[in-house]
Every structure is written in C-alpha cells, then in structure tokens.
UniProtKB/TrEMBL annotation:
Name assigned to this protein: Carboxymethylenebutenolidase
Superkingdom of the source species: Bacteria
Domain (Dienelactone hydrolase) ranges: 16-231
InterPro entries in UniProt: AB_hydrolase_fold, Dienelactn_hydro, Dienelactone_hydrolase-like
Molecular function as annotated in GO: hydrolase activity
C-alpha cells in the first residue's frame, strides 16, 4: 500500500488537496471517503488505509478548503470539537458536492482504475454520501450516521445506484423521530438498505474515540465491505 497527497481541480476554479491511499493490487475500484465534521484527520486517513488494504483506491478530499485548508481536529478535545461544528455550520453543501463530483471524476480517470467508484461517508459526510446517491452517478454509496437526511427525502426518487445507511439507535444527532422518518421515506426503495444498531450512539465506528463500539463497528464494516464488493468489485 502507498499513500500520498494529491491535488484536484475544482469545477469552480482553484485546487484542493486530497489524501490518496492505494493498494498494491491492480486494477482497482475506487472509494471517495467523505470526512466527518473533523476534517481529514488521523482517523479518516487510517480509515482510508484500511480500505486500501482491502484492495480499494481511496481518496479523501479536503472539503473545508474554502474555509480553512488542512483541518485536522481531535474529537476528544472539546475546543476542537466545538470548532468542528463552527466549520460545519459555515460549510456550503452545494460547493462540497461539486468537489465530491470532481473527486469522483479524478478517481475514475486515475491510472489503474476500473472506472467503478463509490463513496463512504461519516457524520456530515454521511449526509453527503446520501447526496452522492441522489445527485451523482457514483456506483454505490454508504452513509454512516448521516445527519439531516430526513430533510432531503424528496430527493430519494433520484437514487439510481445502491445505497447503504448505517444508523445507531441512540444517535444523539439523529433523533428517533428522524430515524423513523428516514425509514418510512425510504422503505419502498429497492436500492436502499438501512441497518440500525441497538444501544450505540453517533460515531460508533470512530476508532480511538469514546464513541467507538467495537461489535457494532465491526458488523457495520463487514456489511460495508460485502456491499462494496457486490457493487464495485
């Protein structure tokens, strides 16, 4: 496996950086890995490395580059966690989706790519993974504890490729009402699979954090890998 930082041209002008983790095998399907509110921090880079070890070419774009390039925040530091939410409030979702489309194109055209590229997103990135399903032609998309999806269920009619949603039943940022709304809104869509995990809260797959819950995280990861292998190869 190799890692490097690459630069991607934005459709609106300018350039943004991304962390690339690539396996030694070829050819490779790709994953656009979408950051939490914490930026492209050590946890996201480790997650990218783990997927690369499974044979995927993984690219983690710096979606905060218009606000503050290179953000890397620690979820266990209260001040840094507060800054993460400030950045998230200032973040322009539509611009972020354009950057994700550019990242998707970059991966599809990258040497040794199979052309198959999906996305995996966490937290705010989980919502963006939902938008990858409704607003792009990514081949498969996975959302971990996506925040705010219930507000955008009208877009579900645009889903053309498989979407997997992981939700912790005790998620403090996605209420039981919101989860019920999401389930009700998506239950008749054959492209959508929803997995809920009892007794776990937001961030249950965030390795090294107090929110991490090993059993649920490993089950979700196994389901994600099976889903990606089915739809990306």
């Amino acid at each position: 496996m190799t890692t490097q930082n690459v630069t991607i041209p934005a459709s609106s002008g300018g350039m943004f950086s991304a962390y690339l983790a690539a396996p030694s095998t070829q050819p490779r399907a790709g994953i656009v890995l979408i950051q939490e509110v914490l930026g492209v921090n050590a946890i996201m880079r480790q997650t990218a490395d783990n997927y690369a070890k499974e044979g995927y070419q993984v690219l983690v774009p710096d979606l905060y580059w218009r606000l503050e390039p290179g953000v890397q925040l620690d979820p266990e530091d209260k001040d840094q966690f507060a800054k993460a939410f400030e950045l998230d409030r200032a973040f322009d979702v539509d611009s972020g989706i354009e950057d994700l489309k550019a990242t998707l194109l970059f991966l599809r055209q990258y040497p040794s790519s199979t052309g198959k590229v999906g996305s995996v997103g966490f937290c705010s990135g989980g919502k963006l993974a939902y938008f990858m399903a409704t607003r792009t032609d990514a081949d498969a998309n996975v959302s971990y504890y996506g925040v705010g999806i219930e507000k955008y269920l009208a877009e579900a009619t645009k889903i053309q490729k498989p979407l997997l949603l992981h939700m912790g039943e005790e998620d403090e940022y996605v209420s039981p009402t919101a989860q019920a709304t999401i389930q009700q809104g998506l239950k008749d869509n054959p492209l959508v699979t929803i997995c809920r995990y009892a007794g776990v809260s937001h961030g249950f797959s965030r390795v090294g954090s107090t929110a991490y819950r090993q059993a649920a995280a490993e089950l979700a990861h196994d389901r994600t890998l099976a889903f990606l292998r089915q739809h990306l190869g």
